[in-house]
Amino acid sequence: MLVASLVLVAAVGAPPAPTCTVPDGGRLQLELALTEKEKRAGLMFRDALAADRGMIFPFDSDGIFSFHMKNTLIPLDFVWLDASGTVTDVLPDAPPCRSAPCPMYRNTKKARAVLLVNAGYSRTHGIVPGALLKFESVPGFPVGLPPK
Which of 107, 108, 127, 145 sits CB 3.0–4.6 Å from 80 for a disulfide? Predict the structure, then answer.
């Protein structure tokens, strides 16, 4: 019985990694900021973010979400998304901030999630307001789609 269980686990494999497909067909591997602790930490104290990586912050309801770059060591693009994964706002090239006070960055239109990527990624890959990003294996996002 134990052997059969191990074979079944090996056959099923690990769940698929969270990803985002951007307008030009590029794919990002995503880190998830699901808990309040993960959302507070974000990408602080990171020396680098691989070119094909990003972090998504899904929220339970639509809103205006403020972020700062305190203790964030790399420049980032902020991409705010509605519940369907459509881009509502983009803030490119937010610079690092090593000491307070740091500026706050917020969306101008209500959003359901925020995607952080390396500075310049949005411009290079066609991420602009109105563009649809496709997400896989992100719990509860986009809203209304069954999990894959």
Answer: 107
The DSSP annotation for 68-95 comes to E-BTB-S-EEEEEE-TTSBEEEEEEEEP
- List pLDDT tens digits, range 9-40: 445 677 789 999 999 999 999 999 999 999 99
pTM score? 0.88
Phi, psi of 8 (to 5 degrees): -65, -45
**Helix or strand (DSSP H, E) at 36:** helix 36-41
Superfamily of domain 15-136: Protein of unknown function DUF192 (2.60.120.1140)
